[in-house]
Amino acid sequence: MRMKLAATAAIALTALPLAASAEGNEVNIYSYRQAYLLEPLLNAFEQETGIEANVVFAKKGLAERLQREGRNSPADVVMTVDISRLNELVERDLVQGVDSDVLEKNVPESLRHPDGKWFGLTTRARLIYTSKERVEEGEITTYEQLADDKWDNRICTRSGKHPYNIALISSMIAHHGEAETETWLRGVKDNLARKPQGGDRDQIKAIAEGVCDVSIGNSYYYGNMLQDENQRPAAEAVRLVFPNADGRGTHINISGIALTKSAPNRENAIKLMEFLSSPEAQGIYAEANTEYPANPNVEPTGLVAEWGEIHPDSLSLQEIAEKRNAAVKLVDRVDFDGE
Ligand code: FE
Predict the structure, then answer these.
(1) Terminal-to-terminal C-alpha distance of the chain
(2) Per residue in 243-281, pLDDT tens?
(3) I need a surface site. Which of 39, 90, 123, 232 has the fewest CB within 10 A?
(4) If you measure from the C-alpha of residue 272 to the centroid of ligand 1, how many angstroms do you get, rounded to a whole number?
(5) Which residues are CB-contacts of 132 (< 8 A; sequence separation ≥ 6)?
(6) pTM of the entire structure?
(7) Helical (H) or strand (E) element with 72
């Protein structure tokens, strides 16, 4: 595997050794996912197929870059997290549909674009974390209850505008409609112990420090904190709640992959996509970041397995993408991040 770190798009353009080559036995990946997650997978892929996988890593700007490069782009696939980023590629018309029996068998319908323009490879649940000390087990079991008066001044969260929260709010709109979701979101805002700030890990720390008792966050942050000596004590102060497990299921989001419109190595790219959805790759990929395999035939391993069976909301990620604009407007209207 050849890797390049692209800190900014400008640097990346000059540092990129990738040349669009239809003949080379290779596949070129633009990735928002970190190197340590992809390395074992791509090594296995190379061994199995003899196709060299080249990766450009970046923190942002890959969609803009693809757009700028147009049909001359060397990129075959984009790997990223969050439905909003995958959907952005579709909206900018940067990706093409893939018609593959293997992908359709390995990736459930709710986790892929209806025309194959993106495929989920791992899932992550958006959970409620509660203080082990100050909140009884079973005291809160649903997202809806976050708006209850009993949590007044007791909830922490990152910005309402963050894609993770936008996707959760989108799912609420899909299930309850806009008016009811607005009432709910105002209720959650009224319960905040502080202005939305930081990332999901910071909310776990805030619970450990007694700033708040309840927060919202993705499953893998908790898992990754438990595995980090310095952050473990904070994680150990909180309990995981899988919201709505007894009802419609817990809201999940995905990391995924999409085939670029201009893909110079289209066949190899589809082989890579199929490989990444296979049981062999799914186990490695999900465990590397304490996520869930998208392939339902692959059991979660490690910490995630210890959390027990998950009952995910079956709402399609495509539907969540379609509610995104409404969710963004709602967050603005209730001034969720305001004082
Ligand atoms: Fe994250």
Answers:
(1) 48
(2) 999 999 999 999 999 999 999 999 999 999 999 999 999
(3) 232
(4) 23
(5) 236, 237, 238, 239
(6) 0.92
(7) none
What residue type is 176 in one-letter code?
A: H
Is the separation of the CB atoms in 49 and 276 below 8 Å?
no
218 CA → ligand 1 middle, Å: 7
- Domain 4-123+253-307, CATH number (from 2.40.70.10, 3.40.190.10, 3.40.50.720, 3.30.200.20): 3.40.190.10
Q: Which structure tokens are listed for 306?
A: 């210890």
Go through 97-124 and write b for each residue having 16 or more CB atoms within 10 A of its CB, e for each that does not. Answer: ebebeebeebbbebbbbeebbbbbbbbb
154-168 burial code (b ≥16 CB/10 A, e <16): bbbbbbbebbbbbbb
Please answer whether residues 167 and 251 qualify as being in contact, where contact means their C-beta atoms are separated by less than 8 angstroms.
Answer: yes
Give distance in angstroms: CA of 24 to centre of ligand 1.
Answer: 34
- What is the Å distance from ligand 1's center to 21 Cα? 33
What pLDDT does 2 receive?
74
Domain 124-250+319-333: give its CATH superfamily.
Periplasmic binding protein-like II (3.40.190.10)
Q: How many CB atoms lie within 10 A of CB 58?
A: 19
